[in-house]
Structures are given as C-alpha cells and as structure tokens.
Amino acid sequence: MEKIFEKDLHQWLEHVRIYANNGKVADYIPALANQQPEINAVAYYPIGDEVMKAGQFEYTFTLQSISKVLTLALALVQHGEKAVFSRVGKEPSSDPFYSVAKLEVNTPAKPFNPMINAGALAVTNMIRGRDSEEMVEEILKLVRLLTDDPSITYDEEVAKSEFETAFLNRALCYFMKQHGIITGSVEELLDVYTKQCAININVQKLARIAAVFANDGRDPDTNNPLIPLHVARICKTFMVTCGMYDASGTFAINVGIPAKSGVSGAIMGVLKKNGGIAVFGPALDKKGNSVVGMQLLEKLAEEKRWSMF
Ligand code: GLN
Q1: Burial of residue 231 (number of CB atoms within 10 Å: 0-12, 13-18, 19+)
Q2: Among 113, 129, 281, 289, which has the highest number of CB atoms less than 10 A from its own CB?
Q3: Is position 84 annotated as part of the catalytic site?
Q4: Last residue of a domain, one of 171, 197, 223
Q5: What is the reported pLDDT for 46?
Q6: How many whole angstroms separate alpha carbon 186 and alpha carbon 124?
Q7: Residue set of the binding site for substrate
Q8: Nearest ligand 1 atom to alpha carbon 117
Q9: What residues pair up with 269 in beta bridges, in sequence order?
Q10: Where does substrate bind (predicted)?
Q11: Domain of residue 117, residue span
Q12: What pLDDT does 63 receive?
C-alpha cells in the first residue's frame, strides 16, 4: 500500500466530481431528495496521524445504512455471536438492500445478513434499552465514542421523513415478527432504526470510525480498545461480503477493501493497519452507491495499491 497525501484527495476528487451527473439522489426518503448532487467531500484518517481532507469536508449528511455496521458491533458486544446469529445470517444475499425476496428462504424470516434492511432491523431489535429512547441513546453513545465527538446526534427531519414513509421496512418487520425473529412493538423498532439511519456526520468523523476498524477496534489516536477485536473482525468481514449491497463482489474486485455505503451518498472504507477513508457524494448509481464515491475509491485503490487480495 502506498502513502496517501492530501494532494491525492484533492486531485482525485476534482477528477471524479463530473460523475455526479451519472447518478440520482435518493428520493424514496423525502428528506433526502433535497440533497445537492454537486456536493462532495473526502477524508482520510491515518492511524496515529492528522486527518486529511478535500471538498466540502464540514458538510453533514446522515449515516443511513452505514449505521448497520455500528448496531451490529453493539449487538455483538451486548449479546455475543451465538444470540445475534440466531436472528440473522452470515451470507450475502445478492438482492437489493430493501428486498423481501429471501425472507422465505431457509429458516423462515431469518434475514441473510445484517447489512440488508431486514437483517439490520433484526439486529436493532436486539439493542438494549427499556424503550426506544434508551436504545437510540445506546447507539449514539457508541457513535460518539468512535468519532470522539460527544455532540453527535440524529437529524430529526430525516428520521421523521423516513419513519412516515417506511412502508417496506414495516412490512419486513411484521413478516419477521410473525416468525419470532423480532419481538415487541414494530413502531418502536422503526423509531429506533430511522433515528440510527439519520445520525448526522461529516467525512472527517466517518473516516475516524473507519480508522477504528482499520486499527482492529482501537482508537486511532490513543490505541485504547473501543470495540473488541473479534467484533471488529466480524464487522469488516460483512463489509467485504455485503457492505456495498449487491455490488459487493464488483467492489471487492475493483477496490478490494472492507467498505460500507449508505443511501445518503456516503461510503466508509477500511485500510487495514493504515487508516480509514470516507467519501460523500449524494448522486447514486442504480444499486444505491455514491457514483462519485465509487469512482474516487476505485482510482485511489488502483493508484495506491489498496486491494487486500
Ligand atoms: N434508512 C435507509 C432504509 O432503510 C437505509 C438504506 C440504505 O442506506 N441503503 O431504506
């Protein structure tokens, strides 16, 4: 792997920004439809060094599906592998993230993996808390720890907008509830899930989260353990096999690092023992990945020889 300099970030972001024209901002969550497709940013957080950045690096966006990695880590810490994987599988599904198709395959209603919506909903259902407010607090606590930023919170408008229109996610929940994969109130679960997806962040903080995974669960500045090693390893493995939805195979060939994307247009990538990278550009390709983000990561991966394979 070759060294990354801030000028590389500027240069490649400038080079790939035009690709925003090839994508479309997500609009199935009404509040996301307002995002400006021309906004973009990148940050690289090297372990033990200063963050580097380019573009609109202060701009905040919501985590969306990237939050699935963090709730998975939290559920694994709280309940252990056996309990978590009794509710959700470990295999890629090759279907879009919102798909209901495979819920009837194998064990009834057990989602294939925690990176698709069904699986993430089953995982969030396990987070400890007496009510949805306490569950959201638990998730925020982890995000604040990993970003080293106690001010992290969620965007109320985005959360409300998704909550009011999450009919497909409600359907997934009711199907899973029928089969005992999830328990309790579906409305409360959706309240937690839409808030976790609406957590506000910028590329610098997201790159820090990725850097924790790159550092095997340890703080990239202090080396203090934040997530147990085996939990970080499981999360990174899911990022490789299912992190980029049904484009994960292509991404593994073209980029070759653990990564997770969200429909807000963000992607975080993990450079083992090296650092974390985060890219933002809200225009998405057909599979829901940021077009600018994908281009930027492909170019950097090729130039800097990132592939772990
Ligand atoms: N909140 C979004 C949803 O459930 C997250 C999906 C995503 O980022 N792919 O639809």
Answers
A1: buried
A2: 281
A3: no
A4: 197
A5: 98
A6: 11
A7: 65, 117, 162, 169, 193, 245, 263
A8: 4
A9: 259, 277
A10: 65, 117, 162, 169, 193, 245, 263
A11: 65-197
A12: 98
Measured from the CA of 288, which atom of ligand 1 is nearest? 9
Residue count of the chain: 309
Contact 77, 228 (CB under 8 A): yes
pLDDT of residue 100: 83
d(CA 173, CA 155): 23
Catalytic: which of 16, 231, 263, 291? 263
Q: What confidence score (pLDDT) does residue 98 get? A: 85
Are residues 35 and 109 part of one domain? no
3-state DSSP helix/strand/coil % of the chain, to nearest 5: 50, 10, 35
Q: Which residues of the chain have pLDDT under 70?
A: none
Could you tell me if 272 and 308 are in contact, meaning their C-beta atoms sit under 8 angstroms apart?
A: yes
Residue 225 has what pLDDT? Answer: 98
Q: Scanning the structure block, which residue is given the tokens 């309790």?
A: 184
Best CA proximity match to 114, nearest among 155, 81, 153, 154:
81
Quote the strand ranges of 156-282, DSSP E. Answer: 200-201, 259-261, 266-271, 275-280
